[in-house]
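Late entry, evening session. Most of the bench is empty. Finally got around to the prediction I had been postponing all week. Sequence below, unchanged from the version circulated by S.P.
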Amino acid sequence: MRILLVDDDDATRSALAEYLTLLGHAVSSCSDAMRALNLCRNHGFDMVLSDISMPGRTGIELVRDITALPGPTSPDVVLYTGHADLELAIGALRAGAYDYLTKPINLEELGAVLNRVAEHQSLLAENDRLTKQFDEEVAAATHDVQAELSRLRGLLAKQAGLDNVGFFSDAMWHVVAQARRYHDDRTLPILIQGETGVGKDIVAKLIHYGQEQTTLPFVDINCAALPANLFESELFGYEAGAFTGSATRGARGKIDLAKGGTLFLDEIGEIPVELQAKLLRVIEEKAFYRVGGLTKIKTDIRIIAATNLDLTERIKAGLFRSDLYYRLRVGSIVVPPLRHRQDDIIPLARMFLTAFSQKRGKSFSDIDIDAANVLHTHSWPGNVRELRNAMEWVSVMHDAQELRPKHIAGFFEGSDLIASPVPDTAPTLRRAPKRKPRPTDDDINAALLATSGNKTRAAQQLGISIRMLHYRLAAKRQDADPNAKA
């Protein structure tokens, strides 16, 4: 062991040091407690063997100082004195001493103490090693669990259709923020409104799954796809023998399947009028009857509905109950059409194009300026769904590094929608097939000169959008000085 010997008596210190060295221990020595404490700070000892009565600080004070030193382990301190005083021994042990000896020191007793100290220090070292190993193994296991959790969340997101979703405009981030707030309160019915193809189902899943990717069930039903005579049994389920052709054991409905989770009623505006009162009762009472059943069944579900119809007009026409409408829209989200979210078009197109290209082994990775202008100028009546379909079509029909106007033109051929104007609420952009020939740099310089540098008027004169003019000017500056900032 590494032993520090502390005694102000030179003869005693020399004799003990010689004896301990003969036993095979590495011995350091000093004559006072302060020097001993400094040595303990700077060197690692397994044991300190010290006299109690010394000038300055006593051996008991040295024990207290050593036990207060920082570090996972400290040396065992054994004190000795020429006074066989029981109270002094008790005081030494209370101060933290490992053992107590009296002078003259019995060498057999000292040898036994040395063996106990060596065993104790070995146990401390093993405990420290195992603790470190345990911490490392826990950290490794934690990392593995986190990696597995991340993998499972990715699989869940993929299964839920949320693995390839992008939000880029302020309008859509506002929608996402609303969805996250609604996620926290499962008792709140929510109505999502927006045109066909804007992604109402994605918003419903964002509300249900939240940021933590819950594993509770998400059950959807397309109200427009079911005939009225099947809708009730599909929604509520039915008891055995409820009607001709029914299963002998009955069947659970979508409300049953969604227990504890979310029931998503897509195209709620198409629900048969005669069933709207029953749906309202489910929302208000959290209970329902199966078709042919007499027992009221309690349910715990979140109701999310979506529609592309103007429900207020349906109410006026007697096709939708006003009480159901106002009950559903306690939580309300309106998803704006793609033509009103110009900042989403190019990032979404690039995301879809890249994903489809990777799937089919194609090279598309970016969109050039002219193709971007074509995408911006289309009114996208089919919204995000139409944009996604366009990028998938391109990935099937073409292959290049950049998407160019010639690649996308074929998707619009034969469609009456290609020339449909963008509404006044969206930026005014000309349709690519109708626009003037692409202006040259000289044309742009002449237009800016003629309008005294007014970019808006210059863009109108050139027959291009102000956005396109900024693109061209930035590209021109970049060509002139590659180090210039666009």
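Two things to note before I forget:
DSSP finds 19 helices and 16 strands in the chain.
The chain has a mean pLDDT of 82.
Will write this up properly tomorrow.
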